[in-house]
Design brief:
222 residues, globular, 80% helix
């Protein structure tokens, strides 16, 4: 019985490590063509604040992946130490997202839809991260799922830049399609929960409808 439990535990840890790498890979796929175009001079170089945001989000995905791999390999002491970085990085990301959001509310096409997405990113990233921190010592199962949800709510920007190869299935609402693809990232997490326990964890049961609600409102206003 002990051996079976240990095997399941290893499988669980490496599953989440793999999912962290999938999240990071999705961001790389989404942003690499854009970054290359900027470096080649075929696309206008964005303001410094955008570069700072890109660096901060890249650091976040690197931290998520590293943390998941450390946990999977049993290096929990390093996992806890490195996790302290998030106490500074997450608030910094929130501040930068707020600074980026202000100009997007000042007129232009799709203002309201974009505004809802900016509110979603700031409020849900902050909320999920804070809850993840509060549960990290007493509820590791909720903690890791909350960290993935915090990351998910800022992944729409990556999928929005994948239009060059992702099929649109006839949808004309770019916002709706972007968020549909974003939510696909959750399918392996939900499936794993169901196969492992026969139910969906309460973090997803509560968190996903909130994410979907923001996405639906943004899509309607787009």
């Amino acid at each position: 019985m002990v051996a079976v439990t240990a095997t399941e535990s290893r499988l669980d840890r490496w599953f989440y490590a793999s999912m962290a790498l999938i999240f990071a890979s999705a961001a790389i796929i989404g942003f690499t063509p854009n970054s290359l175009a900027i470096l080649e001079g075929t696309k206008e170089n964005p303001p410094l604040l955008i570069h700072i945001h890109a660096a901060a989000m890249s650091s976040w995905l690197l931290l998520l992946s590293t943390q998941a791999i450390l946990a999977a390999s049993g290096n929990l002491s390093y996992h806890k130490r490195l996790g302290m970085v998030s106490f500074a990085l997450a608030p910094f990301i929130v501040v930068v997202m707020i600074l980026i959001a202000f100009p997007l509310f000042q007129g232009g096409e799709h203002t309201y839809g974009v505004g809802v997405i900016q509110i979603k990113r700031v409020t849900l990233f902050s909320s999920f991260f804070l809850l993840a921190i509060l549960t990290r010592q007493r509820d590791s199962e909720s903690h890791k799922r909350l960290m993935f949800l915090a990351t998910l709510v800022v992944m729409d920007a990556a999928f929005n830049r994948m239009r060059w190869f992702l099929p649109d299935f006839g949808f004309t609402n770019r916002m709706a399609l972007t968020h549909a693809y974003e939510l696909v990232l959750l399918l392996p997490l939900l499936t794993y929960d169901w196969l492992k326990t026969g139910r969906i964890h309460r973090v997803y049961v509560i968190g996903i409808p909130i994410i979907v609600a923001f996405s639906v409102v943004a899509s309607i206003l787009w």
